Amino acid sequence: MRDGAVAAATYAEIRAWIERTPLEDLKRKSSEAELLFRRLGITFAVYGEGGDPERLIPFDIIPRLIAASEWKSLSAGLEQRVRALNAFMLDVYSEQRILKAGIVPSELVLDNEAFQPAMVGFTPPGGIYTHISGIDMVRTGPDAFFVLEDNCRTPSGVSYMLENREAMLRLFPRLCAQHRLAPVSRYPEHLLATLKSVAPAEAGPNPTVVVLTPGSFNSAYYEHCFLADEMGVEVVEGVDLFVSEDDVVFMRTTRGPQRVDVIYRRIDDDFLDPEVFRKDSLVGVPGLMRAYKAGNVTLANAPGAGIADDKAIYPYVPEMVRFYLNEEPKLANVPTYLCDREEDRAEVLANLDKLVVKLARGSGGYGMMIGPHADETMRAEFARRITEKPGDYIAQPTLSLSTVPTVTEGGIAARHVDLRPFILFGKNEISIVPGGLTRVALREGSLVVNSSQGGGTKDTWVLEDGPARQSQSQSQGGTP
């Protein structure tokens, strides 16, 4: 399945470029891209597997293209979905109307480890729980985009989206200039504006924003530092912050304590504040939740937002759209079996050779089985796991994902992709970067795009209508 009904027209110039460029030249440019990324230090960390934990995410130089008309439809659906998810979080931590109505089973929420009782009865500034969302999308047909999963906790990958575009502009300025590309470079500016918009009122017109990281051993540490640098704010660890007796957060600086108004936190809930969550956390800030609930600091995303990430909650998102917004969903879910339901479980166990089985609370491609690619031993193991702990698993049909051309050792070949757009939800508006991060399954026949499982990335081009623009950075020399 090629990538969309408009693929032939949209990819016409890219196809011509590929056909007139020798494979060795494409491979040489791929090597240049790797050197560029290595020089910039764009790595992710994988610990516990031996060898060098700092790795490059492979970057494929052939971009993934999306037509303006497709993006307009997608972005409308993304905005609708994020509004519904946020309304769900606001509801389950307050009135719980959707639970009382029986639309979402209470036990799926109240007994969920991602549900944070500490947030019950507290409304974040502006009622916004998920200021930064990453919604994973897949295409299965000419006009068929599906939401694969929602990431409302601490979605990562936006730094690769930005660096991928920068790499393409450096390596192929003429090719970029031949297309009218929707820009992505203003994402840090929009992110900072979003964070400032939800600052406490007393912060004034120029609130202090920081990025809170668990430190250099985190797999996304490069991104934490990158985004802080791009926004012109400090990246801090827990030891750099303290909470005063009157519940105000301060940052330790060489000039003395400086008040902090907004924290873009990249630390999981459990480690955020040892006074409320895990007592043994060494990366959090004691008293942070007191300051948060006192209205003296804003946390983005809000603690407890992970309840909307749960794959067992995911099947109910279309009903959330209807319940909270009184609208029909613009984006469809992938049909999903909940193994905790007896009828669904029986169907899954009878069709393990046809289904994809996932941990309801898993991520990174771990704890997953792709039935058609699994052997009998693995299927039997997953049958055992599902039978013993059915609530831990969901299952979905094996989708016929779209493919895009990719540079491989043997030549240009089709590889499966997904798409993670990033949605910013501020006090006054929702903004969406055109395109997002395209992840590509580099192994032949693989459907797993996660970087931890050998996947790579591509630049995502949303092609605006009208003639190409010749920006200075796009029109200077370079390979066609």
Automatic annotation (TrEMBL):
Residues 63-441 form the Circularly permuted ATP-grasp type domain. Residues 469-480 have a biased composition (Polar residues). Residues 449-480 are annotated as: Disordered. It holds the Pfam family CP_ATPgrasp_2. It comes from the Bacteria. This is Circularly permuted type 2 ATP-grasp protein.
